[in-house]
Structure formats: structure tokens, C-alpha cells
Specification:
By secondary structure, this protein is α+β, with helices and mostly antiparallel strands. The chain is flat and about 95 Å long. The mean pLDDT is 83. The protein folds into two domains: 26-130, Sandwich (Immunoglobulin-like); 143-176. The chain is 29% helix and 30% strand. Strands 1-2-6-4 form a four-stranded antiparallel β-sheet, with no helix packed on it.
């Protein structure tokens, strides 16, 4: 075997072992948060967390800046932190969105989930900004009626002046 064939064989052998090292990645899934990340005021969301290596995770620390957390679907006022112990099947918790309305740009809730391993170190973490409800524009225009009337009046006068001006200029050309 020459050196080219030996190096090709070595690359092939290493590529067979490479997928084994990727199987140890820290993979988790968070389901149940609002799809478009805009919550509905006062709505309760059931959030399900799954991971690929339950044996390595000793606890899950969850915190939010707005709303309330609970391990059941009944809520106490303003619980912003929740700690879930290790599990073999995943974790379920509930988040109740804030009940009050906020001004534009306010009311966002930062949700942080920190997975802690058996040594007390961070196994992995997740962070998501849940925004206040979307502002839906009304079917009416934001322009007052008097402004629309004034604009259309201006357009009408401009068109009439243009037609009159073109008639005057054309009349001058006809006489010469």
C-alpha cells in the first residue's frame, strides 16, 4: 500500500468514528411557548421540556421576569422562580402570562431555563423573550377625515390648474 491509500483509509476510519462523538451532544426541547412569541394576556401555557440525557441533569431552574410560574395549573401571585428536580421522562411546568395590559414596548417576559448537571455545573441553558400581545391595527385609517378631505381637495385643484395651463399654452401655439 502506498501512502495515498493509507491516508485515504485513515480518513475513512476516522469518519466512521466521528458520528459517535456527536451522539453525546446536549440536546433538549422546549415546547408550549407561544409560537410567534407573543403571549395572550392572562393565558396559562403548559410548557414541556425534554432532553437526551436525563441521567446527567440533577435539576432544572426556571425563571421569568413577568407572569407567574407553577408546577401545576393553579397559580400563586408573582412566582418568578421554579426549581424542578431530576426526572426520567422530562419536565412539565406552567406559565401564566401577565394579566394586565402594557404600553407599547413594555410587558415583555424573559424566560430562562438552566439545566444543572450532577456536579452542580450548567449542563445547558435556554433563554427566550416572550413579547406582550401584538397590537392589531384597526380597519380604519390613522389619518383624520379632515386631512383626507384637504388632501383630495389639493389634488383636485392641482389637476384643474394643470388642465387649464395646458389649454392656455396650446392656445398660444395655435395662434402662431
Amino acid at each position: 500500500m502506498n501512502i495515498f491509500q493509507k491516508s485515504l483509509l485513515a480518513v475513512f476510519a476516522m469518519s466512521l468514528l466521528l458520528p459517535l462523538s456527536q451522539a453525546e451532544d446536549k440536546i433538549y426541547r422546549v415546547e408550549g411557548i407561544p409560537e410567534n412569541l407573543h403571549y395572550s394576556t392572562g393565558k396559562s401555557y403548559e410548557i414541556i421540556i425534554t432532553a437526551n440525557d436525563y441521567d446527567s441533569i440533577s435539576e432544572v431552574n426556571i425563571s421569568v421576569t413577568n407572569g407567574s410560574l407553577s408546577s401545576t395549573d393553579s397559580f400563586e401571585a408573582d412566582v418568578h422562580n421554579l426549581v424542578l428536580e431530576s426526572s426520567e421522562e422530562g419536565w412539565i411546568f406552567f406559565w401564566q402570562a401577565p394579566t394586565q395590559s402594557f404600553s407599547l414596548g413594555e410587558g415583555n417576559s424573559l424566560m430562562t431555563i438552566i439545566f444543572t448537571d450532577n456536579d452542580g455545573q450548567v449542563w445547558s441553558s435556554y433563554e427566550s423573550m416572550l413579547r406582550s400581545p401584538e397590537i392589531i391595527s384597526h380597519s380604519s385609517s390613522g389619518v383624520p377625515d379632515w386631512a383626507n378631505s384637504l388632501a383630495w381637495g389639493g389634488v383636485s385643484i392641482t389637476v384643474l390648474c394643470t388642465v387649464a395651463g395646458s389649454y392656455v399654452l396650446r392656445r398660444d401655439k395655435i395662434k402662431h
